[in-house]
Amino acid sequence: MTVQANRLQVIAVTVLVGILCAIGVLLWQSMGSGGRGSPQTSLIGGEFTLVNQDGKPITQADFLGKPTAYFFGYTNCPDACPTTLTDMTDRLKALGPDGDKFNVVFITVDPARDTPQLLKTYLESFDPRITAATGTPAEIADVIKKFRVYAKKVGDGDNYTFDHSTAVYLMDARGELVTLIDYQEPRDEALAKMRRALTS
Amino acid sequence: MHIPSLLGAAALTATLAGSALAADFKAGNLVIHDPWTRATPRGAPVAGGYAVIENTGDQPDSLTGGSFSASSGFSIHQMTMKDGVMSMGPVEGGLEIPAHGSVKLDPSGFHLMFTGLTRQLKRHETVGGTLVFKNAGTVSVDYAVGSIGARGPEHSGH
């Protein structure tokens, strides 16, 4: 009886110590990451790993050193995406020689349908200086999160669409956000912002 | 139904002359003004269809469906823009065309969604299709294809 009781006590204490340790570890972890408020959480943009329209791996590093305009969309989008690509084509041309000093990157929010091959074909209708990017669902989810992009799949079957952010993210040569260009922003204002990104 | 075919012939003539002119199509009390669409990027799987549908009659009608000769799918969609986020979804139960009123189908609101495009749409061509209404029935229309970034129908030859 007493031996059994002792054994039960030992087990109970062991379990209790285990639980307390686990709580302690959790508390310490949450204080460690949340308490310090790491600067990463306030940034827009950052590291990513994707592939371009040629199927070649690309990262943020490939676009540093030049201002970069990033925007997010998908080829099954009837209006906003071709319109933004058309506008960016027009803006690059309007900048003249300065157009060569920019990267423009169209990142799909629909990696299931937007293969590198389809993106390459799609880009043929726009300025050749524009890059398109896709990736695995996890890679796309990661870059969407880092850019604070809203993208939500709507509907099932083959004809689903996405609700998505339409702004163009204008980053400087160091990869930091300069400003956003709104959807269909007047030409002169968009060009002024792009010129600002060149000098910031 | 002689008027639509006459207009169709006129549109065809315009195409043969080298430019797609937007045209009007009539069916009963409905007038479909200037159906148009845009040139598509290469490989694009979808396109949007636009027009102004006017109802001169005393009874409301509703657009319930249709077809587009260069796509396998056709649906009626609505696009809304809020806080920089574009949302799009099908219009359920048809789109009402009020009596003595009109509904505008354009890129920023109600529009037709052509899915499963079978080919690239080129500027200055016309592409046939139909619109199906609850009361007026099936109407043949021709969509004038504008530029890739067009904001409205093109009226004059270029």
UniProtKB/TrEMBL annotation, chain A:
Keywords per UniProt: Copper, Membrane, Transmembrane, Transmembrane helix
Pfam families: SCO1-SenC
InterPro entries xref list: SCO1/SenC, Thioredoxin-like_sf, Thioredoxin_domain
The UniProt record lists the keyword Ribonucleoprotein: no
Record bears the keyword tRNA processing: no
Residues spanning the membrane: 6-28
Gene3D superfamilies (alphabetical): Glutaredoxin (3.40.30.10)
Domain Thioredoxin: 39-200
Family that this chain belongs to: Belongs to the SCO1/2 family.
Name of the protein described by the UniProt record: Protein SCO1/2
Organism this protein belongs to: Labrys monachus
Organism taxonomic ancestry: Bacteria, Pseudomonadati, Pseudomonadota, Alphaproteobacteria, Hyphomicrobiales
UniProtKB/TrEMBL annotation, chain B:
Annotated InterPro entries: LpqE-like (IPR007410), Lxx211020-like (IPR058248), PCuAC_sf (IPR036182)
Coiled-coil segments: none
N-terminal signal peptide: 1-22
Key word Nucleotide-binding present: no
Record key words, sorted: Signal
Protein name: Copper(I)-binding protein
Organism expressing this protein natively: Labrys monachus
